[in-house]
Amino acid sequence: MSGPVIEVVSPADNRVIGQVSEARADDVDVAVHAARAALESGAWANSTAEDRAAVLDAIAAGIKARSGEFADLSSAEVGSPRAWASFGQVSTAVGVYAASAKALRTYEFESTRPSVIGGEVLVRRVPVGVVGAIVPWNAPLFTAALKLAPALAAGCTVVLKPSPDAPLALALFSEVLEQAGLPAGVVNIVSGGVETGRALVSNPGVDKISFTGSTAAGARIGEACSRDVRRVTLELGGKSAAIVLDDVEVDKKLIDGLVTGVMANNGQICVAQTRILVPRGRYDEVVEPLAEAVSAMRVGDPADRATEVGPVINAAARDRIEAAVSGAVAEGARVVAGGTRPEGLDAGSYVAPTVLADVDNQMAVARDELFGPVAVVVPYDDEDDAVRIANDSEYGLAGAVWSADTSRATRVAGRLRVGSVSVNSPAPVDFGSPFGGFKKSGFGREGGPEGIDAYVEAQSIIL
């Protein structure tokens, strides 16, 4: 790459832990041309579904074989607790490639149907073409998998742009791709920041953009793609709610689940269930053990496997989160856990895991995506009120419902205007099922056969 060196800084202690070269517009153009040449050669696009599925399986196996290296790198560059990184950063990616391979083996690329004017129609699903995939820093290997796996399954070629804050795991991933047997040019990786991303989005050789990141950036990308009539998938922000119904048993499973839903990856996941909705009649019954559990979490070096909460990505993020907590207190929220900077961790970008009680859903802290280890507990009156509050958000990515009655929880889940909902679990993502958002959480879906659908064009041949 012809651009300057990007130094990757550990959020744990501000040390430089690696570097990559920034891709300029000319470098992006070279990568797009390589992807276009690989597409038009037909070596990948015209291969059989079984052959492509075998490569996806090989990618999954390659990541798994080096899972320790990937977890170490992700922990170092993102600040993910090492104990969590093994699953949240690595096993999730393995699962996506394996699930896409499985879906690919039964995916219908051709089908016939009767024509309404007589005869038959052959409906073909052909690759959308060259895909520009832009992924964030919080879970780079996983979010890249959500784009690469279905794009490759469909027969597309890809130019992948990691975040400049966390490019190292994906640099290592390039070795896995090479060993998996992908033809040259099928996947190309260009590192860089906003200008690199802008060059990729505007490049006329790109047929589709798939972006994961902030709603603000997604809106700009969507606007640019609209002007060029370019296909686009946007997986954007979230402010997900976990509804605790009034029949729930307040036990360790519930409290652990609520904590995990907020604090996983230091609160830096798009599906974090940061709004916890609790019935007024049982409010203290939930808030007190939740505060105790969060206060007891071990904050520290993400490389230490005993650490439960590591640093946020940088000092700017830390300062923004702290300001949001202070603003909430000024509006009347009550700090019941955390709320202060952890002692003895001045070298890194640490935020104490925090719980705010007595939060009104109209407060900024309940409406803005903080992307940090902060939970807000909002009281509600009855089931209808809980659904109203959960849906009273510009976002609609994910959610959870906790109840002693699974049927009731499922019914409530169906009333939420979000892309995916977990029942009695903090994990609203299934690798073999569609994932994506309503409202300003974006549009399009990743995962399952629906994920492959996003990377094909339907062609009708009338016989």
UniProtKB/TrEMBL annotation:
Its EC number is 1.2.1.8. It comes from the Bacteria. PROSITE patterns: ALDEHYDE_DEHYDR_GLU. Keywords: Oxidoreductase. The keyword Transcription does not apply. Pfam families: Aldedh. The active site is at E235. One of its GO terms (molecular function) is betaine-aldehyde dehydrogenase (NAD+) activity. Residues 6-461 form the Aldehyde dehydrogenase domain. PANTHER family: ALDEHYDE DEHYDROGENASE, ALDEHYDE DEHYDROGENASE-RELATED. Belongs to the aldehyde dehydrogenase family. This is Betaine-aldehyde dehydrogenase.
